[in-house]
């Protein structure tokens, strides 16, 4: 049961993140193959990194054809209906928040299953959520938006922590998954809607060397 | 026999990709050590990533001194005879196409040997071919040319698929290696010679946010 | 005894590199979470990469909470006392040299313990030393300073080679650690103080395509 839930969350997150990768690629005028590579990278590199770090090789995204199929599908949809996808770019932001919630929760569960401690598992959940987006932006030579966006990584971490606390308190995984994912989505939703920011530090000099 | 063939293809691919890394480093005025680091990265990171993903650790490029020796040799040749290397930059493009063919084929064979499915093995072959070039460009803060160049990744994928189809049909590995590598090289050659491009998507707005 | 020495060197190196990551993040106006991510990346990615490559998964920096604790501490200190940290930026350069020495030596020892050959172990020690700084700079879309700075990677390699030579000659690990680390620090110190550079190659054309 938990197994199926994890798989659905993982593939759903892969799909929405792959769309974000494809949109970035189209905006930078990559050709269709570049679009598919960025779809795959954005949708799967967070999970692949997690799997390599916890020793689960070959990673699910490599061993199971469903991940690449979902990524390619998302890339093709974006490529051929870009004007449509672009008009829905606000909706994409919501999809992305859903993907983040899926990945943060599923990544944390998988890390716990592989024996990581309750301190480190949420961090791997967060990495699952932000890893793909970081590589997506690095590949188009930009500073990852994940490192600057409103409460992005923090929302992922909050959802991941809920999952771990639930596990320690022996709450049903289904319940913690829903609450953790919901919290992650809600935080990200509020951050976008109300423009919540985390503070930056003090260097007020405008000239950046 | 297949073992020796794989080793020769792998080291040959490493050499020509290491030269491409060194040329990029010299163009960005890195010092000799930076040149050697980029030689190693361009020549080996595709294969290292493949080995980590299929669980073959330590990766061949780390465990076997020949890979680093070949990379350093390529870096030193480029560094000390740069004006000569540069005059042959068109030839380097051909070498690079040879390297791509070598890596795509050898990477696919290795993935099959380690038990990956016929669906995923060609993707790992392609990754072996394009991974080093991607890191090379990311390290000098540019969008990887691999993601934009004429039929680059697609040529690698086509060659890799030939290897897998041959394996499924029980054709001799030597034959599929030659046909697959030849197809990859031919596609890349035609793409450079005739300026073949893959299509890009529709965003015709010139202002890129 | 060697075990404790390695742990202290590793955590000390993590702390000073995490500070360098945090300073880079603050200079690029990332928010506090981005600062912590860059602290962790700069302080730990070199060691994580080494551990993945030698098959020691989950990597120490993931399995042991002390690494993340030290990284977060360094990030918070930098974030809240940035004007102070910035005034000591020359001192940070010295700290960074100390961290490089720690990592180069500890990374080489760990690679030897995991059975790597005396040829490859120093290269993994060097990678431990420069990996975090490379990702730090890539994440803010800059060419890694490691690839250009005065004798940076070479100092790490020299210290690492001392450790390996000592091991081959059956010298006490404590002695080789001190001599190797000292050599690395001294080379880097001299390079900064006297402006020592490695040579670059010949392309004298000012227009860089």
TrEMBL record, chains A, B, C:
One GO cellular component term noted in the UniProt record for this chain: plasma membrane
Membrane topology according to the record: Multi-pass membrane protein
Segments crossing the lipid bilayer: 6-26, 33-53, 65-85, 119-139, 151-169, 175-196
Domain Glycine transporter: 8-82, 93-165
Keyword Transferase listed: no
Cross-referenced Pfam families: Gly_transporter
Localization, UniProt: Cell membrane
Chief site of localization: membrane
Keywords on record: Cell membrane, Membrane, Transmembrane, Transmembrane helix
InterPro entries in the cross-refs: Gly_transporter
The family this protein is said to belong to: Belongs to the UPF0126 family.
Identification of the protein by name: Trimeric intracellular cation channel family protein
């Amino acid at each position: 049961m938990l197994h199926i839930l994890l798989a659905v969350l993982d593939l759903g997150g892969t799909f929405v993140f792959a769309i974000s990768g494809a949109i970035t690629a189209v905006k930078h005028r990559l050709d269709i193959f570049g679009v598919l590579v960025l779809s795959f990278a954005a949708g799967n590199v967070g999970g692949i990194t997690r799997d390599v770090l916890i020793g689960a090789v070959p990673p699910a995204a490599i061993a199971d054809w469903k991940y690449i199929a979902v990524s390619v599908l998302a890339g093709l949809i974006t490529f051929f209906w870009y004007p449509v996808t672009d008009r829905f770019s606000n909706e994409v932001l919501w999809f992305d928040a859903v993907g983040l919630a899926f990945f943060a929760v599923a990544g944390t569960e998988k890390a716990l299953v592989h024996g990581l401690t309750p301190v480190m598992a949420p961090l791997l959940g967060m990495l699952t959520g932000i890893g793909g987006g970081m590589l997506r932006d690095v590949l188009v030579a930009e500073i990852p938006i994940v490192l600057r966006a409103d409460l992005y990584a923090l929302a992922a971490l909050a959802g991941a922590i809920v999952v771990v606390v639930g596990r320690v308190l022996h709450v049903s995984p289904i319940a913690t998954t829903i609450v953790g994912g919901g919290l992650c989505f809600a935080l990200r939703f509020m951050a976008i809607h109300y423009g919540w920011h985390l503070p930056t530090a003090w260097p007020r000099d405008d000239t950046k060397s």
